[in-house]
Design a protein that fits this description.
single chain, alpha+beta, 18% strand
Amino acid sequence: MQDAFEPHPSIAFVVENAPPASAIGGLVALFAAPEPLRGLIAGGLFLAAALTFFARIVLRATPGQVALVPVPEERVPPSLVTLSRELLPLGFVASPVVDVPMSSVTVTMLPLVHERERVYAAILSVHGAVTGVDLVSIAEGASGGLTTTNVPSGGISPTRPRSCRQVLIGLELSALWQAHLDGLAMLRGRGMRFKDVSAATFEADLNRAMDAQRRFLWEAPYRRALIAFTRAITGTSPHKRPLREQQVEV
């Protein structure tokens, strides 16, 4: 969907190598400013430092490419197998369990595919405990699609244009599946078409989506980090409701 992206050098320096030169200039301004302005400048410096730190976390949590590492059968968390038994009767076909090495943690994932409905599923586990399930359909042609998840943090990161999301915490898997089908029907009614899926294309499609999301975050790292920071602190997100209750542009 997207070509490889090379971030602008100045942005890369600011995010990956704190403190940036602008922070040094800010400290000079702080000590040179009149007393009434020092509080404002100090607050601005604190906000800039917090956003730089949070932007770094968000970008590191969104690698451009990952390699899926097969997990030996004896290391497969039983909770993944148990949860997969709820998806298999719905028409999903499971693939072998894999590890997904991220910057700060390795996520264990059970990939599944529903070819007829054009849906990928991923049951996610960290340190042996299931953290949630993602249901993903990818739009044909231009970027976009629909993700339905019960992962509580699923609504924090800003989304790309035409990338729709439903974060429905606490739903049973059958209800989560129905919500995804309802969302697909709504988007198809608005002209969005979805690409075929298969076990063979799972890893490539995952990497394309992660690369596109990382590029999107790099385009405006501070503004999008501020959105993610605000959502994480307040626990709010426009995606924490069914798609029909959201403002959707396709």
